[in-house]
Design goal:
The complex is a heterodimer of chains A (155) and B (192).
Chain A: H1 20-34, E1 44-45, E2 50-51, E3 55-56, E4 63-71, H2 76-79, E5 84-87, E6 90-92, H3 96-106, E7 117-122, H4 128-140, E8 145-149, E9 151-152
Parallel strand pairs in A: 2-9, 4-7, 7-8
Antiparallel strand pairs in A: 1-4, 4-5, 5-6
Chain B: H1 14-28, E1 35-40, E2 60-65, E3 71-73, E4 76-78, H2 83-92, E5 103-108, E6 112-117, E7 120-125, H3 131-157, H4 166-175, E8 180-182
Parallel strand pairs in B: 2-7, 7-8
Antiparallel strand pairs in B: 2-3, 3-4, 5-6
Helix pairs in contact in B: 2-3
Chain lengths: 155, 192
């Protein structure tokens, strides 16, 4: 009787993969939108301290970063193991900060220049001495908005 | 029929291309959002004042942090966990203690005439203090300030400080001011 199909004799139809590109594209767009590229190659180890009263850093284009920490292993031969300052891609000294701030200001549109925030990304085991020096330099460069980068304490 | 239909372009490699891009973005992505504590530095004064502004001792909460990360608050050795309560007590001065800050009658919108503390927090670090400790102190002070503001906002509007509108926030800020002055660095006991 042809009314009933015999089980097992027919092969399973192949799953259509036509929608696969769509799915992948969706993921792709998600990552493209949420991505922020690393602007600088870090030469120093930075593990910022934790705090509870943290605020999100907004307007990333108006933030200039100063990194302070112990140089990474491959630089320790030349730079030693004392905490160093990194501006942009290179090791710097406290004296370079004023020039750095000026350059950062120049790179922004004129109306935004006084809205620049300096974000200090400092390793938690650094001593305050170097930070006090940096703060003095920032005051001299009259870049007074400061942000101490911290992680939020995991509760 | 002069023209032949153009054959459809084989799009099976599209997925591969998309995958390639996807993997690139996956790898280069950093999802972390920068967070931190905002501070405003005081500008360098044009000319040095002849003498430091006079502030009564009872109006100052002097916080000293030494190179061993020990905390001295108004001559008292405290642990970091006690700092928050101490600061709140200092600003509020609930029992009108003689040794805690004076209050000034001020008119503030929404609140009317209220007594506002004249207290001032003075923070001094050694060059050898660790950055971690410094942030902890800043954090505790910020937490004390936020808790005070939340308290006042709760009393008045039954809302948290963050949920108030701009004007209300300003009023609360005036009610429980938190002035933190960071003393010029001292260098006790040599470098490092």
């Amino acid at each position: 009787m042809g009314k009933f199909k015999k089980g097992g004799s027919k092969e399973l139809p192949e799953i259509s993969t036509a929608s696969l590109p769509d799915i992948v594209f969706m993921l792709l767009f998600f990552f493209m939108v949420s991505t922020t590229m690393r602007e600088v190659e870090l030469n120093v180890d930075v593990m910022v301290p934790t705090a509870t009263e943290v605020v999100k850093l907004e307007k990333k284009d108006l933030v200039s970063n100063i990194y302070v920490g112990i140089p990474m292993r491959q630089f320790q031969k030349t730079m030693g193991t004392e905490p160093q300052i990194q501006l942009n891609d290179q090791f710097s000294t406290v004296e370079d900060i004023q020039a750095f701030i000026v350059a950062e200001r120049e790179a922004r549109k004129e109306e935004l220049r006084n809205k620049l925030t300096t974000s200090l990304k400092v390793d938690q085991y650094t001593k305050m001495g170097i930070i006090i020096d940096i703060k003095q330099e920032l005051r001299k460069a009259s870049s007074l908005k400061l942000n101490y980068s911290t992680r939020e304490t995991a509760e | 029929m002069a023209r032949k239909k153009t054959p459809a372009i084989n799009s099976s490699s599209m997925a591969d291309i998309a995958f390639l891009l996807l993997i690139f973005f996956l790898v280069s992505t950093t999802m972390d959002i920068d967070t931190g504590i905002y501070k405003k530095l005081p500008p360098i004064p044009e000319e040095l004042p002849d003498e430091a502004p006079k502030v009564k001792q009872r109006n100052v909460l002097a916080i000293l942090v030494n190179r061993n990360d020990d905390l001295l608050v108004n001559g008292e050795v405290l642990s970091i966990s006690q700092l928050r309560e101490k600061t709140k007590e200092f600003i509020l001065n609930p029992s009108n203690n003689e040794n805690l800050p004076e209050k000034k009658l001020t008119t503030i919108p929404f609140f009317g005439d209220v007594l506002v503390s004249k207290g001032l927090v003075s923070l001094q670090n050694d060059r050898g203090t660790s950055y971690e400790m410094y942030i902890k102190v800043q954090d505790e002070l910020a937490a004390a300030s936020r808790e005070l503001k939340d308290e006042k906002a709760m009393q008045k509007w039954n809302k948290k400080y963050d949920d108030l509108d701009e004007e209300q926030q300003g009023a609360v800020r005036d009610f429980v001011p938190m002035q933190i002055s960071e003393a010029e660095p001292k260098n006790i006991g040599g470098n490092k």
